[in-house]
Amino acid sequence: MKRKLKLGSLGYDKVAYLFILPFFLIFTYFYFIPAFQVILDSFTDYDLFTTRNYIGLENYRSLLEDDKFLQSMINTFIYTIFTLIPTLVLGLLIAALANSTLIKTKICRTLIFMPHVVSMVAVSMIWIFLYDSTNGIFNAILQLFGLPKSDFLMDPNLALPCLIIMGIWKGIGYNMVIFLSGLKSIPEHYYEAAKLDGSSAVNTFFKITLPLLSPTTSFLLITGLIGSFNVFEQVNIMTNGGPLYRTTTIVHQIYINGFSQYKLGYASAMSVVLLIIIIIITVINFKLTQEKGA
Amino acid sequence: MNKRKLFAFSTAALMALTITSCGSSSDDELNSKVSDNSGGSKIIEMWSRGNETDTHAPSLIQALKDFGEEKGVEVKYQFIPHDDAPTKWNAAFASSTAPDVMDIGISHMIERINLKHIVPLNEYVETWEGKDDIYPAMLDLGSYKDDVYAIAHFPDPQIFAYRKDKFEEAGLDPESPPENWEQMLEYAEKLTERDDSGKVTFAGYAMPTQGARFVANIMIRQNGSLFADEENNQPTMVTPEATETFEYMNELYQYTTVFDNGKTDTHPLINNSGAMGYIPNGVLSNYLKNNPDMADKFGFASNVPGKESAAWCGVWFYTMTSQADDPDLAWDLIVHLTSTEVLETRVEEAGLPATFESVSKDFIEKDPAINTAIMDAVSVGAGNPKVSWSNLYEQELDAALESLFYGEKTAEEALTEAQNNLLKEID
Amino acid sequence: MKSYRLHQTWSRVWMKTIFILVSVIVVFPFIIMVLTALKSNQEISQGLSAFFPETPLFSNFVTAMQKGNWGRYFINTIMITGFAVIISLVINSLAGYAFARMRFAGKTILFYCAMVGMMLPMQVIMIPVFLQIKELPLVGGNDFFGNGGIGLVNNYAGVILPLIAHPFGVFLCRQFFMGFPKELDEAAKIDGCSPLQIYLKLYIPMGIPIFATLGLLKFVDTWNQYTWPLLVFNDPEMNTVQLALNAFKGENVTEWNYLMAATIVIILPILVLFVCLQRYFVQGIATTGMKD
């Protein structure tokens, strides 16, 4: 707090605007204006090609009655919770192991990072192969253990878990790398002090590592949240939202409504709802981490 | 230290490379811009779905080049991956950067007409030589509400295929496919293999769980009806014929393994896990090309009729876009691309069927067994009902069939819900 | 002391075991990928009965690379990625530095604006962004109001520009720079350094780990771009490697062996980069000892 005041006394830096100018020029032109356009469109009957007509809150009213959109919200929430938490926990665990000087992990780290490197399109295609109900590898493994074959992506109860497992698989490496760089920037002398105090490894982890890691964690949490709320590509390729709409997600619904039925105004209203949800969760997250930090 | 040097060096090399290639490419573009503005040679742009490496691409590229030389214009062409074509089109039309001529599929046609992306060709077709040569059914598929919008050039029907060897094992005549619906059901039961738990391991009939709308479209026509009233632009999902069709499909469904029609690689017929069913002709012919030893194990028919004969026929069309700079030139290009000469070359090089009588003889001669079935399917082939909401129709039909197959709803409930959903969206 | 050492050996063993186990599970799909890349068409259509290829067909890699002009595709992709990574590092870290260290009016609001901007998925703003690319003033025949020409359509810059302003990058840089000891700034300021000099002399050298991390992530992101090149380019010569993969995906058939072979070739450069950069982004900040 004291330091902030001190810096404050130095006054405003006009130069700062020059520093952020290049970013904001491009950002405004390519993100902000289009995003603003989407918000405006949500109050119109825009269909991509004819002129827009203002229709007030009509799109939002229809949203309330849209069962598929409700289903997509539930699916997205389930996907987010069950992908994000395991990815974070596993990522941190592996990063903590990799951070240890006891073992050499260079090759393994590269291997674990590999899924992040491959495009979602390619990843989805490989996993379709694995999940295939007649010739899939996973079914072969099930049979090896004497278990019955499963339909995986074609089974209404298993399709979403299948996507979740793939999501975790793809995300661990990225989380590990970011956590690792966070861990490496924690000064060694904290650990030394803890060791002198006779603190156990587990205790050190919870009392020192986790709190000091909270900027990294909050970064991964927020970006992870945004990422999983926007899950789309794998859904589009692997299940197309089915079976029985059990894997349709918010962005998938936006895509279907916008680009297969050309109800862009309606799809924009969905986007705005999505945006609001993400903002609320992000703000809560910020508040929580700030309190922790204070 | 060495490593670092190497790294620095490779970075520098990379930078140099990027700068030079960037320079050259911008030069290229500058040149093309100049010729664009000078008006010296006209440019006509054509977009086709697929890839430069497709079997039919070389003949198309050659035809485009020939056209350019003949007319003294510059022909630009681009291939667009099938799945991404609608996205690319949308962006192009929204930004007025669309081509003059483009190739579309049957399921895109009505959508593009509604969006006013493609224009009627009536006045051109009237004086067109090929008018008498093209199969009337194919010309009809490219029309909507008395206007011709699209010229069919490549039919891609689903044909009925069955495994002769499996028929023999089950004590059926390998030379004759089922003749009607009852027989097909009977055969399917005999051909199905199950494991101890009763789960189907070999499909007597291959019925897709997802994307079954193709089969429904075939069977509703075979049952003498349609899911939509084309004249009044209204859905007619709740009819006795529709319920009958759905119930029949559901009965067949108990003899299938689970697969998604959208993932053609998983079709049981080409995975040695199904005895009969409808399959896109391209998928099957490709499989037989890779597995020549399977060729004599397959029998073909255009369809297994119910009350009537009907088949699903996907079609590729050439269309003129609303953003064509010179419509006359665009039409000339379409005429050139559908000329007997060009299509005959394609039959020879790629073995694709064509929509013109003069070309189909050559095609049948190439491989009579399967190609006769293909051309028969073309002659009784049809697509989605021609209604303005064909995208929504596909979506609702698929959803209704899914809920039927997974036992969530009865045939009647599923159809009623689809009907209601469609009515709600249409007005 | 003895028991401590024993303890250490044991923990080494189980840590190693966990690590190898995780790696094996993660790598499993890639093994399938490699096996598929080495099979013949026939073996692939036989499904599981041919799990291992009878004779590994390394020639599949060669055949795959001969389908289309892959040299050109790689040059295109390297160029797009190179520019996107370098420019985005510069502008995002500059902004991140300003947000972390400088005080100016509207700072909080601007920062949150940037954050909100990254929350909408690409599918949602795809068409509006594409129109912006086409209507960029004064390029590609456009007038000052963005009319008349084709803007950056069919231009490499049309793919690069929308990718470089990356709020994630600003966010990450800001988080990272905020961890730097403020005394350094103040000392430098007293020495008469301008903010730009502080950024160049202190933050860039100290920020190498974050640049390595961010650069790698941006590299992966740009390398795997699919939709922008698809929409913007109207010329087969401009294809990127990701677009070129479509050559193996027909409407009716997918040539799995070539597709997998080409995919492996495509991910190799990123893996090499990862290995090269690894030591940077895991080394941490050399000066962290001075923190607090």
Structure in words:
- Helix content of chain A is 73%, strand content 0%.
- Chain A has helices at 2-8, 15-41, 58-64, 67-99, 106-117, 120-131, 137-144, 159-184, 188-196, 201-212, 214-229, 233-238, 250-260, 264-293.
- Chain A has 14 helices and no strands.
- With 294 residues, chain A is an all-alpha fold.
- Chain A has a single domain (34-293), classed as MetI-like (MetI-like fold), CATH 1.10.3720.10.
- By secondary structure, chain B is α+β, with helices and mostly antiparallel strands.
- Chain B folds into two domains: 43-155 and 315-378, Periplasmic binding protein-like II (D-Maltodextrin-Binding Protein, domain 2); 157-313 and 384-426, D-Maltodextrin-Binding Protein, domain 2 (3-Layer(aba) Sandwich).
- In chain B, strand 9 and strand 10 (234-235) form a beta hairpin.
- The termini of chain B are far apart.
- Chain C has 292 residues and is mostly helical.
- Chain C has a domain at 83-254 and 267-290: MetI-like fold (Orthogonal Bundle), CATH 1.10.3720.
- Chain C is 68% helix and 0% strand.
- Chain C has 14 helices and no strands.
- Chain C has helices spanning 2-37, 41-45, 59-66, 70-101, 107-117, 122-134, 156-164, 167-178, 182-190, 195-206, 208-223, 227-232, 241-244, 256-281.
- In chain C, helix 4 packs across helix 8 (167-178) and helix 11 (208-223) runs antiparallel to helix 14 (256-281).
- Chain C is flat, with a radius of gyration of 24 Å.
- Chains in contact: A-B, A-C, B-C.
